[in-house]
Specification:
two-stranded antiparallel ribbon, 2 domains, alpha/beta, 102 residues
């Protein structure tokens, strides 16, 4: 899991960055099995052109991109821009939707 912006104290993101082995999610304790990294040089408030410019520097396309932050319509618009300009697989997960990343 890659964090690209500030994680406020008391948030799950901050807990993950500080090495939490378990987190409470929807009332259940969940084991953390992901590798957690932080890229502090990026702003969490990039606009779509900045995001596309950054994504365009990838040497190869990822298997999928998950857009999990933002209001529904801007998320859909960003998805459409990434699909149209880069041809990548972009997923807008629904609440409680699960994915096997293996």
């Amino acid at each position: 899991m890659l964090f690209v912006g500030y994680q406020a104290e008391g948030t799950r993101g901050r807990s993950l960055l500080e090495g939490a082995k378990q987190l409470k999610v929807h009332g259940q304790m969940v084991d953390v099995r992901a590798e957690i990294k932080m890229m502090g040089q990026f702003s969490a408030r990039a606009d779509y052109s900045e995001i596309l410019r950054w994504l365009g520097n990838f040497k190869r396309a990822p298997k999928g991109v998950f857009i999990v932050h933002g209001e529904p319509e801007p998320r859909r618009e960003l998805r459409e821009k990434i699909v149209r300009e880069l041809g990548w697989n972009v997923i807008l997960p629904e609440h409680l939707e699960k994915f096997d990343l293996k």
